[in-house]
Amino acid sequence: MKQLNKLINHIVNRVNVNLREPLVDVGPFVQDLIPKDSFALYYAFYALTNNHPLKFHFRHSSVGGTYFLGKCKVNHSILYKSDIRGDELKRKGSIVECNGQQIKLRDDEVIKIRDSFLMKTLVHNNSHDPENLEAFKISNTVSLHYANIHGTSVEGCFLEPFASVDLSICHDCAVGAYSYVQAGELSHKRINPGRIWVKADGAFEFNYQYPEEILNKYIRMENHRPKGILMDFFDERKEDFIPIYSAVNPENIVDVPDGASVSPYAVLKGECKVEKNVLIAQRAYLEDSYMGPGANAQENCYIINSTYDGDDVTAHGGKVIHCHLGRQVFVGFNSFLNGKEDCKIEIGTGSIIMPHTIIDAIEPLKIPDNFLVWGYISKQEDLEMHSIPLSDFAALKGQFRLGNMTFEGIGAKFVDGFRHRIKHILECNGAFWDGSEETAGHAQQTQDISFNILQPYPEGELQGLYPELSIDPLEPSDL
Amino acid sequence: MKQLNKLINHIVNRVNVNLREPLVDVGPFVQDLIPKDSFALYYAFYALTNNHPLKFHFRHSSVGGTYFLGKCKVNHSILYKSDIRGDELKRKGSIVECNGQQIKLRDDEVIKIRDSFLMKTLVHNNSHDPENLEAFKISNTVSLHYANIHGTSVEGCFLEPFASVDLSICHDCAVGAYSYVQAGELSHKRINPGRIWVKADGAFEFNYQYPEEILNKYIRMENHRPKGILMDFFDERKEDFIPIYSAVNPENIVDVPDGASVSPYAVLKGECKVEKNVLIAQRAYLEDSYMGPGANAQENCYIINSTYDGDDVTAHGGKVIHCHLGRQVFVGFNSFLNGKEDCKIEIGTGSIIMPHTIIDAIEPLKIPDNFLVWGYISKQEDLEMHSIPLSDFAALKGQFRLGNMTFEGIGAKFVDGFRHRIKHILECNGAFWDGSEETAGHAQQTQDISFNILQPYPEGELQGLYPELSIDPLEPSDL
């Protein structure tokens, strides 16, 4: 345990040096956050499959409860119950276009985590830093509960709970709770809690700011610890995960048709039905719900008493309760769609629920087809100020304001970008699989997977830390 | 699967080259021995603890169901449901005396397994090859069900089921089923099935030969596969192990007092009681039995309806049914003491049951205190030709014959050697622990252990093989 305390102090100092401006002391957020016994209590696991390049190296780190896929290096870091998903890393020889130049990758990309503390954080996609195409870097960073580090290299950053940094590059930034940032290259910035910020240089900028009193109900920091409805929601359901983490090969109780994949580390409760090409990721939670063909539920998603017509996306951390989703609905990161038995939420085909949207229904709600939805909604009339038909949005040019939302730029680029990305997500997940290798995605490729469990030193000075581990692919040519 | 077949052929060729003389073709013993699906079905596990030097390296191998402890390298080999116990390897700086010379170890000893096929084999203790003190070598070797490679470097050998090679050095030898060899340096020898051979150069030689028709009842090869009562005994109980291998942290149902240790991978059935300083190893099986203070049950031991008064040793593979053991009884490797409800076996204090002894009682049997027992016994009167008071044996000088047993040399050296070894085993296992570090042994040192599970490629060309894995200890000085 002595060495683990030294490691925590080491990380705090490294991060604080980076965060001189904006001035943040990450110490109180991190010190004593994880009960000391827990470091040695939970195992880590990495996936073994023929479908992804594979290489792991763990050194002087504690990685309890964390799931690794792909190529990852972890050095002098604490990763607690996090997901390090390297299945969308770029491969050697692939071409990246940047400013009209075509750059060829000299090696497979590797997720490189150094001197960082990640608490229940999801790392996914790949580096969008054109200067570091072969490395998805996370260094000198503290990231707290249910943060998403998605396609964003972060160096010297502090992410509060439920923050998402998406397809960006962040240096020395402090990102507030429940803020969503997709804004290119950022440096030495403080981003307020509850800000939804999507920016493409020379094309558009979208901003929404949650009112403080509303945000605080759902997520706030109290004495450096997260509180609120979102935290309670997770806490109330965490016991359901215990049985699946106690079995070596947990088994699911649901029929999994051809081309679909249900992680053995997902929770399925009640009556669930999963159609073809559906993907249910590890740490997803499905209860009394129907997943139509090609629909997916990613890490930390909770889908309860809901029906998905098909080809719907629930991005990382999306929570969908008492909802009916038409076809091709997109629910963004960490959204909280909280319908009730008598206040159902109906979402029309093709609609886009922006990341970090909260719909906490106090009456039945209906979102028409092909709408863009954002911000905080509790009644049907709230939709007037928090949604707009996608076709109207695509027609925007110049400045636009609706309630707490501002938009500037070319609406068509914003809408096309979103539509393009949703299609890409569905492709990646294998929603359109027709039996061919070309159309296969995560749902098909994660079927033949095995999980390897790693446990830390159970006692003594090294308690909670892991030995140094290298795992390399077997080269058939060796024989 | 293609690569696994190539690996099997590679091993067969390597071993056959070594076994030109005596001429053995190991191919038919190994080909199709393990159902192809099973290679990918079972996980391997290695232990992590602060109490033993730690280092693992697995390369181009299949190690399903195998347990590793200590420092082990495995290269181009198949280890199936075997135990590679490196907890008695010699440490860097320790002194080995050989021919009056004192040799200091320049490194920690490592078990090095190359180009070998081990089926349900136990590897334990350390190298007794003075030419290779830092390496416990197993290469170009095929070893079958429940063989014991104990403190014996084996190169180019074939061990049939239930064979034990103990504290020896074997080059290019074929060791028959159920034969026990402790005979110094052996080269290009064929050892018949059912031969018990203990030899110390210039001191003594003990020989016993099982009658063929009796041995065949218990263990024989039929179409290159093992058959007989001993195999049936294991097969009938193997289902009992399934639940413990399905849990990440299997829990035992028995109270474990201070200083005692019960492996989570042992089976405990019915009413069992374990006293202080008892050690129950992984893959041991205890049913309705009492283990007095300091008693132990090692790998592949089955103790059923029996009582141990204390400080008793059940060496690897010992099976003890309906027996009552007085204090400090020793039951040697792979012995089969098969008492019955109405034919109990009583063994007096201080008696030594030689390795590979079969007592299959058809009437109640009583062995007095301080006797040496060997060979095949089913009735009380058989003891006349298969046992002798240890004090009488210690008085032997020159040649001695009793039934199928011959002895030549100095009896006192034989008896003293045995007594010394039993004391050493009890010390190693922590039977005499008084709370001090000096008296601690395996029972105390394996309490704070965690198990790491490794799984092979689940599908495809590499199915059943493992990625290349290196596991090194964490160096606290790194921070």
TrEMBL record, chains A, B:
Top-level lineage group: Bacteria
Organism: Maridesulfovibrio hydrothermalis AM13 = DSM 14728
One Gene Ontology term of the molecular function aspect: transferase activity
Alphabetical UniProt keywords: Transferase
InterPro entries from the UniProt entry: Hexapep_loop (IPR040730), Trimer_LpxA-like_sf (IPR011004)
Gene3D superfamilies, A to Z: Hexapeptide repeat proteins
Pfam family, one: Hexapep_loop
Official protein name in the record: Hexapaptide repeat-containing transferase
